[in-house]
Amino acid sequence: MEKIAENKSFGGRQLRFSHNSAALDCSMNFSVYLPPAAEQGPVPVLYWLSGLTCTDENFVHKAGAQQHAASHGIAIVAPDTSPRGEGVPDDAEAAYDFGLGAGFYVNAVQAPWSSHYQMYDYVVNELPEVVGQTLPLASDRAGIFGHSMGGHGALTIALKNSDRYRSVSAFSPICSPTNCPWGQKALGNYIGNDRQAWKEYDTAELVRSCEKHLPLLVDQGGADDFLAEQLKTELLEQASADANYPMNIRMQAGYDHSYFFIASFIGEHIEFHKEHL
User: Fold this and answer.
1) 227 and 252 Cβ atoms separated by less than 8 Å
2) DSSP reduced 3-state for 220
3) Which residues are within 8 A (CB) of 123 and not within 5 positions of it... i.e. 6 or more apart?
4) CATH top-level class of 2-274
5) Around 148, how many Cα atoms within 13 Å sit in the side-chain half-sphere?
6) pLDDT at position 151, please?
């Protein structure tokens, strides 16, 4: 992998890399924050998954996570949200909610998306291998978190890979993509018309069948414009109750869907993960 940017931040290093992804068949960028403790040896790692339209840089610039990661001695790896580049297909109308910037962290099986849109495999398998080869990360002490589409990605990935992650959290996650317009568009195109197959990427469905209960925290803004139509937090709350899965789902009054919301609670999320990493 090639380092393309480096900045000093709270005693640590904010880095950006480029590499050729075998899973996505294109060049990909990702960002990594290494805390000061990484100078002494491997540190725990959090994987951050961003939402629709984002790249790997939105979280780095807006969330204010570096200070908290530095004080707790935790690294943060932030990948892009979709494959990019020449030959990578996009939404026919260049819509924001599908195609480039909207990989939904699934493995596409429908053409033409299946040739590049393998974001699930990229996040779960390839990216940890790439960063683990050269960076001082304790891969056995990993957590995952994200926002909106990335919150959906973090929750589904963690629930399906409870042996890889010790904790999971999300801001404003799409809790049941099988029941909202964003999810139905993405899953219908990436996965196809078999709605039963969609459940593999639906947090509210996975909660009902997962055997291991990872520590799980969700923050949702009460003034979020997408709450009723797209995010469906009530379906996750119901699934949690039905499955007797203890999770901390917090409704934060007055907060919206933006990075102002994320920045307000990012310290609490990193501290939550620290307890388990």
Assistant:
1) no
2) strand
3) 47, 49, 79, 105, 153, 157
4) alpha beta
5) 24
6) 98
> Which residues belong to the active site?
148, 224, 257
- Which residue has 């992650």 as its token pair? 165
- For the chain, domain boundaries: 2-274
At 255 the pLDDT is: 98
pTM of the model: 0.97
Return the structure tokens found at 74. Answer: 């935790």
Closest listed residue to residue 227, CA positions, set 257, 266, 184: 257
| Beta-bridge partners for 137 | 43
Token pair recorded at residue 137: 């990360």
For the record, the structure tokens of 214 come out as 């990872």
- Alpha-carbon torsion 24, 89, 170, 162, what sign? negative
Per the CB < 8 A criterion, the answer to whether 190 and 240 are in contact is no
67: number of Cβ within 10 Å: 16
Amino acid, res. 201? Y
113 vs 23: CA distance, rounded Å: 13
